[in-house]
């Protein structure tokens, strides 16, 4: 496929601006071919206007038809062959198998959403039948379900160029809910975005979706993303990326004359607590699993384990030295882009200069600054040292973590109480350990979105029950997830119909239950007719 670097506005293309940029292969130190055009205000307006015009016809499609669209997207992505993977690898320095794994994830979530909307019960249809004879007042017939909100703006993250970008759950869940989408391409992988967007365009044409159901705008200036979020035609936005970017756009969304929900999934510290039973029986295995999780994808995961806590003991000291040894064996590798590499290098220099922080492990081989490589680092401190330095609670994006020695279980709780909202917390231990640390678990339940037992936070299962979210600053809305089928709930709102004629109700609320979905009928879950 020949990339154009143009905006893809519905089925049209546009390149009105002479303000251009290119993507870079950081590992080779070379610019990639294709010049990308920054979207103009009028192109952004066209994309959103097309989406707004498409909304009513798209939302009215039978769910089966929207499911066909999602399945066609999966087919078109597969039909791209290696092209998508090769470009993603060149733009992000991810090895090809990692890119292939991201593509598999897209196929899984796209098909999962198709199945979910075909089944249809997700709309949470509720019916309370009326009773005109009720005394002292007649009871109205009240019915409600979840309906799509309108055009959604999507911002993907640089670290998942395929699975959390144009083809990510944000886009696919918005389509599943019945919302058109305008994606702001990530400037670090604009070519991958264009290839993926063209697959969606082809699927939209094949399944006769309304013009404007999908558009892609390119841009490397914050102004482009800001304009998109400020556009009055956008009804909600989903973002995955840094705390700084997410917070800036969240504030912009809230400052609009008509504020809109802005669902930002941001960075996270993902603490790991090593309880005594686990360290006694399997310190070596935990050290191995921890270092593998820490360095996976050059540490560029929002679920990277940034703090590890253990009780001062012989076993904890053994774990520390095993983890340090394994970190020494990690070969430095190229990061996603020069911005992330610069931030990581500055963050490591800052940590090396901090009093109270001991360097206990680092990659044996030096990192090449020209190739944008990151070495892995392991620091150590005490509970008191951690609490005295709030910056250690902040995500430093890359393969770095801090080991924290605690004197007693009360120290675990002091640290847990000071944690900000996080995507996950992990505990290694025996079931008896869990019973002995119930208070810690209660604190963590308030702080995180996912509690992991004897595992590692990196690597999410793509399924109905997953929750990938957490209290601020992990996200801007802790009630919602950006992964899994519940992600659709960000793009719908309840609409209630009172005493409405049966034939004019949405199908899901009609007496005969023509879609055969599970509903709440007078307080009982059933597929029965009303
Ligand atoms: P990023 O720099 O925040 O970029 C994300 C997107 O937002 C880009 O399109 C970026 O484009 C735009 N953007 C950023 N700041 C903006 C601003 N002030 N105004 C307008 N647009 C703005 O994040 P990243 O470096 O790509 O991703 C790495 C981060 O993502 C890490 O912190 C990681 O933990 C997090 N992450 C979170 C999850 C999760 O699920 N929670 C998953 C993966 C990654 P421009 O820079 O061109 O404006």
Polypeptide structure, described:
With 530 residues, the protein is an alpha/beta fold. The chain has two domains: 44-266 and 480-490, Aldehyde Dehydrogenase, Chain A, domain 1 (3-Layer(aba) Sandwich), CATH 3.40.605; 272-453, Aldehyde Dehydrogenase, Chain A, domain 2 (3-Layer(aba) Sandwich). Helix content is 38%, strand content 19%. It contains 15 helices and 25 strands. The strands form six sheets. Strands 2-1-11-10-9-12-13 form a seven-stranded mixed β-sheet, with helices on both faces. Helix 5 links the parallel strand 9 (152-155) and strand 10 (181-184). The longest helix is centred in the first third of the chain and has 24 residues, at 96-119. Residues 155, 157-160, 164, 184, 186-187, 219-220, 222, 225-226, 240-242, 245, 248-249, 265-267, 302, 340, 395, 397, 423, 468, 482 line the site of NADP nicotinamide-adenine-dinucleotide phosphate.
How would you sum up the major sheet? 7 strands, mixed
Q: Count of DSSP helices?
A: 15
Report the mean per-residue pLDDT as an integer. Answer: 97
Q: Can you identify the CATH superfamily of the largest domain?
A: Aldehyde Dehydrogenase, Chain A, domain 1
Strand order of the largest sheet: 2-1-11-10-9-12-13
Low-confidence stretches: none
Our measurement of the CA-to-CA distance between the termini, rounded to an integer number of angstroms, reads 53 Å
Count the strands?
A: 25
- Taken as a percent bin, the fraction of beta residues is 15-25%
Structural class: alpha/beta
Indicate the overall shape. Answer: globular
Q: In total, how many domains does the architecture comprise?
A: 2
From the alpha carbons, calculate the radius of gyration and give it in angstroms.
Answer: 25 Å
Distinct compounds present: NADP nicotinamide-adenine-dinucleotide phosphate
